[in-house]
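Subject: sequence -> structure tokens, single chain

Hey, anyone have a minute? Need the predicted structure for the following. Not urgent.
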Amino acid sequence: MLERVHGYITHQSFCSQSVPTWPPESALRAHLGPLGQSCVSVCRHSSLVCEPALFHRLNSPAVFTSPWGRRCGLQQEPQLFSCAGSDPSDRRLCPCRAHLPGQVALYPDTL
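Reply:
Had a minute. Here:
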């Protein structure tokens, strides 16, 4: 618990006017999952954790120029971003990130 508090306080700028982003974009590891798998499963398969706070970095037309030659869909409602969702006919682009053993709230560059 104290590691998490230390990590959050160390990387916060309480005087900044900009909205803080946690975890930072540098923590993002995008993974394209197979048909029907949730982002939880996709990230776990690579020993990572799905980070819902990073979905907004992937949910843009610039990311979905579809190098796979397929139709891509964007989530229109940010409140519906979900690591657990899946559909048998869809592949998901997942916002994964590394984590410290036993501390999924922290990523390795935190401490």
